[in-house]
Amino acid sequence: MTEATMLAPGTAWLLLVGFSVLWIALGIWWGRRGKGDADDYLLAGRNIGLALSTATLMASWVTGNTTLAAPEVGYTLGLWGMFGYALAGLGLFLFAPLAVRIKRLMPRARTSGDFVRLRYGRLCWAIFLIITLAYTLGFLITQGMGAGLLLQSLSGFDYRLGMVCVIGVSTIYTLFGGMRAVVGTDFIQSLLIMGLLVLVAVLGFSRFGPGEVYTALAAEHPSRLNLLLPTGLLFAWNTGLFSMGEVFHNNIWWSRVFASRPAVVFRSFVLGGLAWVTVPVVTGSIALMALAQNLSVPQVNMVFPIVTAQLLGSGGAAVVFIIIFASLTSTLDSLLAASADLIAEDVVAHWLRPGSSDLQIRQAARAVVVGLGLLTMLLSWQYVTSMYQLLLFTGALVASTIWPIAMGLYWRQANRRAAATAMVLGSVTGLLAYALIAPYCAALVSAAVSALVMGLGSHWWPERFAWHQLAGPEPAR
Q1: Best exposed site among 236, 345, 371, 380 by fewest CB in 10 Å?
Q2: CA geometry: angle at 153 spanning 149 and 159, to 5°?
């Protein structure tokens, strides 16, 4: 065990193997309970209740970035880093009313791509798919890197070993169980994450109280308490818009809408958002505690596990291991399942092989799960950048989809050419802002340009869309 190791290798192996076997066994068990058709594999039979729906939304949004990157920005930006990251919960809150409308307008749909194709046509649909798949790959890579960093920092394992293990486990149980396995494991993972985070917060602040933290920060790091910090304000705005773009466009959240019962859709998004907000607040407060105590943090993107282990000893390292392992697997399984749904339904069934049978769609989805798992391992093989910097880069893409999605759901006059142009120009200007101004500006600029193009284009060249077209034909059987 090296000097930097916080968790004994034997303990780390025990936790890794134990939870891996548990998730895989549950995935196989839930998969065998299903009916075996595409709707069951992709959407858990469209019958998820309130508890499972809320838990899977919260667990899917508690990513490796939430537990690793949220403390990073809390450590570097202070209060606005903590509260600004918590604004990512806006995506779930604001999508709640849209989810109800989606459920009513598209009772038989399976993906977010179904909406864009039926609402705006094939050109906009192709642009949307490119944006979605680029973002998904970026998101998957951040989770793969987070997995490698977890085992490397906590137990001294090789970076690639941790990455391959966590991605491999998520891929296997998602492959066998589909959405049923994802939702079921998400429920357990959400309970683990919330319960252990409360334990960390209580134990941490019992040793170093909030008053002591504030006094120390005011004396040595006053800028971290400045709520008018320009960088912090810009970060907060960017985070809110980024979360809206991610949730509004990503099939993770649309698949939850289609998989849940109509009566629980609105409440599950609101409750899931409320539960999620507590996570960056708790992990960010741990980062502030590290600043106040001047604890040594050699890797800023691993501030949460490093500080928790220093505060709570080997037991704290084990707690952190479980929290981050659960958050990584809960996000990876959701990304794999939702992406498989999107590619099998949109790319295969509506493009490459029109008229695919129900069985062919299910087989395609399973193949995509395996392919994406292997591709994520390959792209995550080397740790190349900060997890949050990569997410800020993809934020320039997803923020361009906010207004085409929102206006397309409520505004009959929304123009298909304006939607396609808004996505392209928003993405391009957002990426330019990322490179030429600051990464925190990317989503803000992208969303602003997209809103302007979408609003003006639809006002000057309005269309008269018939809402019944969104109902679409029955999925393949």
Answers
A1: 371
A2: 45
| Mean of pLDDT over the chain | 85
User: What are 263-298's pLDDT values in tens digits?
Assistant: 999 999 999 999 898 888 888 888 888 787 777 676
Which pair of tokens denotes residue 340?
């498989």
* Dihedral, 146, 147, 148, 152 alpha carbons, nearest 10: 100
CATH number 1.20.1730.10 is the correct assignment for the domain at 9-385: yes
The SS3 call for residue 44 is helix
Lowest mean pLDDT among 46-60, 78-92, 436-450: 78-92
Give the model confidence (pLDDT) of 25-70 as tens digits: 998 898 887 777 788 888 988 989 999 999 999 888 887 667 777 7
| Identity of the residue numbered 233 | L
Helical segments of 221-302, H only: 230-249, 251-259, 265-293
| Residue that the structure tokens 């968790």 belong to | 7
Nearest residue to 328 (alpha-carbon basis) of 136, 87, 65, 85 = 65
Please name which of 79, 86, 82, 71 lies closest in space to residue 221, comparing C-alpha atoms.
79
Single-letter amino acid, residue 65? N
Which tokens is 322 given?
A: 């479980």
Cβ neighbours of 355 (radius 10 Å): 8
Beta bridge partners of 260: 48
Contact call for residues 270 and 100 (beta carbons, < 8 A)? no
Distance CA 427, CA 445 (A): 9
CA 433/CA 442 separation, integer angstroms:
5
